[in-house]
Amino acid sequence: MTNIYIESIVMAFQSLFSNKMRSLLTMLGIIIGVAAVITLMSLGYGVQKDIEKNMAGLANNEIAVMPGGIRKPGIRLSPGAAHSLSYKDYEAIKKLPNIRYATPLLNFTYTAVNKNRNWTTAVSGVTAEYAILQNMKIERGRFWNDEEYNHRKRVCVIGHTVANALFRNESPIGKKIRIQGNSFTVIGVTKEKGFTYFDQDDFIFCPFTTMQERMLGVNFVSRIVLNGTSSDILLQVEKDVTNLLRTRHGILPGRENDFTIQNSKEILAAIEANTRTLTLFLGSIAAISLLVGGIGIMNIMLVSVTERTKEIGIRKAIGATYGMIITQFLIESITVSLAGGVLGILLGVLISMGISLVSAVSVVISPVPITGSFLFSVILGLIFGVYPARKAAKLDPIEALHYE
User: Fold this and answer.
1) Of the spans 34-38, 295-299, 356-360, which averages the highest pLDDT?
2) Is 403 within 8 Å of 313 (Cβ atoms)?
3) Measured CA distances, 181 to 114, 152, 216, 267, 375 (Å)
4) What are phi and psi of 142, to 5 degrees?
5) Counting Cβ atoms within 10 Å, is residue 268 exposed (0-12), middle (13-18) or buried (19+)?
6) Residues 291, 384 contacting (CB under 8 angstroms)
7) Per-residue pLDDT averaged across 358-369, rounded?
8) pTM for the whole thing?
9) From CA 95, how far away is CA 78, in angstroms rounded?
10) Facing residues of 355 across strands?
11) Range picked from 3-17, 152-166, 268-282, 387-401 for highest mean pLDDT
């Protein structure tokens, strides 16, 4: 029996090499399918790695408190819900146990102007603790000091994107920019962080006191960001903040909160889940071409059965059984898909490496899509080879010998 398998494998390779062009065209669908799966999933893994790397700078025990409850479809926020957090709420939260840092934020979108250049960006009023929370480093200049903060000075720190847009190649330190009719002095530029799912360098920070009292004249805050002493007590901190705010806002039992709390772990988990889904989606789309390749193998095998009808008749006439014939054609079909799978892996790895060399896109070549696409191609060769093999095995030897 072993000789039958060896003979079938030898005949399969002889068939491949005797019709090189036809064999290559037969394998083309499998080659493209395997290469597409590997390339797209490698790109997906690369995007996921980049996001995880860029998000690693965020504290894994950070909590954000935002005004307004959880919005539901078709339900509008009540009047004033967007301003439900006050500066006094921040002061009360800061006194809670297990909190290392806490900072209030005021966030608005304004157009900053420098001479004949302007740039629309997020302008935020923050405290010095916010820079610590966000792992923010100053590349040029400095952050504001306590005197500037307490005296509501019109100073600001800008990100790389804003610096390039407003000052081009000039040094922005000590220069003036105008925001909502207010003149601000640029005292610092932060180190470049780059782009993840948003531009991390497109912002202007100014002292919270300046924005709250001199620019807006309000007592509400856009959000409160805080940092727990450890990730283990994150849920307890959330409960403490919730209970404190419900008491301060006079929310009765059974009523919904007029604020929303999110922690960085939940955000990271949601982002990772989305990128994993995207990666699997890309791989699934690419796998469709593997099915097309399997259909191509079946078509060529049917042509092969027709061309070799007389040969099959001779083999059956000298004693070849149903099982021997079906084994021969199945091995030929699997051999084609195996060869296509190997070539597809080589092509997919080369394309992935080429993308990483010529672009800034990260690519992570994982054994999972390589192994998965290869096994899938072999299974397709087996499945789509069954019908032609059975057709060959069922041929009547007498009719096959008389076939022209």
Assistant:
1) 34-38
2) yes
3) 12, 16, 12, 36, 65
4) -160, 175
5) middle
6) no
7) 80
8) 0.59
9) 29
10) none
11) 152-166
